[in-house]
Amino acid sequence: MMHYPKRCVHCNTRYSYQASGDGCFNPVNDKRYCPICKAIINEALKSVSIKFEKVELPVPENHPIAIEQFEEKYKEWEEDTSFIHFYRVNLGPENFKYKDLKIKNQNYKLIENTDTGEKLLETEYERSTTSGKIEDFWYEY
Ligand SMILES: [Zn+2]
């Protein structure tokens, strides 16, 4: 469990932000706002509907990042010693291996069936919550 001292960007109160462990998903636990300000923000945002949701689907044909490009970038990422590498904890079935990598603001996930050698590359898309249609890729900024 990691706690960090923070100062609220709105009211300037000092507070403790919990970055991991039990309670880190508490809706008022926030990197920028103290629990009191965050509770007010959460309450105000209840009236704003969610317009897009994130869905994971296979990359389309002719997408610039295919399995080969992903594996090449993943290898470069592993060889880059300039930062600490965080590997996915495999929680799925044992015969599946997962690799995650962000390439040009887009998250990719390579799923490999270690029994058959079959590979599937997925990425994230934004789906409209009103029309249900996929509108674009999901970019992280
Ligand atoms: Zn505050």
Give an overview of the whole structure.
This protein is of the alpha+beta class and 141 residues long. The chain folds into two domains: 3-45, no CATH class; 52-137, no CATH class. Helices cover 17% and strands 33% of the residues. It has two helices and seven strands. The protein has helices at 35-45, 67-79, and strands at residues 3-7, 14-18, 52-58, 96-103, 106-113, 119-128, 134-137. Strands 3, 4, 5, 6 and 7 form a five-stranded antiparallel beta sheet that branches. The two termini are 26 Å apart. The mean pLDDT is 93. Bound molecules: zinc ion (ZN). Zinc ion binds next to helix 1.
Secondary-structure class: alpha+beta
Query: What characteristic shape results from the CA principal axes?
Result: globular
Helix content estimate: 10-25%
User: What is the total tally of β strands?
Assistant: 7
> What amount of the residues lies in strands?
25-35%
Bound molecules: zinc ion
Low-pLDDT windows of residues:
none
**Straight-line N-to-C gap:** 26 Å
How many domain regions? Answer: 2
The pLDDT mean sits at 93
Main β-sheet description: 5 strands, antiparallel
Number of helices: 2
Taken in chain order, the helices and strands follow as EEHEHEEEE
Oligomer state equals single chain
